[in-house]
Amino acid sequence: MIKKYNSTLAALLTVCSLSVTSAFAQNFNNIEWTVDRSNTPSQDRDGSGRTPSTRNATNNQNEVYTFEISTTSTSSGLQRQEFQFERREDFHRFEGEFKIDSDQPNFDRVSLAQTHDDQTGSEGVFSIYQVRKDGNDYVFGVQGDTTEANNGYSTFDTVEIELDRWYRLETRTYSANRDDSFEIARLYEGNTLIWTETIEGGGEGEQYKKVGAYRLTNGTGRVIVDWADLTFYTGEEN
User: Fold this and answer.
1) Which domain holds residue 110?
2) What is the arithmetic mean of pLDDT over 150-154?
């Protein structure tokens, strides 16, 4: 169930006030999407674990890619096992399915997917989709650019998820000049929408996606994350 709720209507009203394309207020409904098979990833890895081969990562929709952080150490620097995809500008969209393995249940603060832009450091992280421990439960949520006061993890909705269960994440993004970028994210269980959020601000003219497993600051534990059906699109206004 959703732990807290921030009105989607309020988010849409905020969007309407932005001096950017009217597609935002229409929830990208006037965008025509084309599958982008050219967006091939590279491995981005640090620390102990495994990142799968990138072979066919955007061409073989039936393959499962397993990412593992295999150490509990917090003193060995970054713990990152991810695919990093190519930069895109204007309208772009990502869809993929993920599952967290119950063989390693003792983790906290693990990023599953991210959107980055051309800025450096914490300003370069436009959105971080993550799972945190809440007592005995696991909750999915997001945080944005850490330099933006309204983009902290606690300001967005969270939803409880289960281990060993497949979920589909979809992000629709408009990459524009700084402070004009915009992203709508949706999480599905089967065909049921269970979570949605809107990220805005920050940003530069190009952004790129990452998927896999990345232990966030103050995160703990080993974790195994499967990703499948990775699909990218580019969009144009009708």
Assistant:
1) 8-237
2) 85
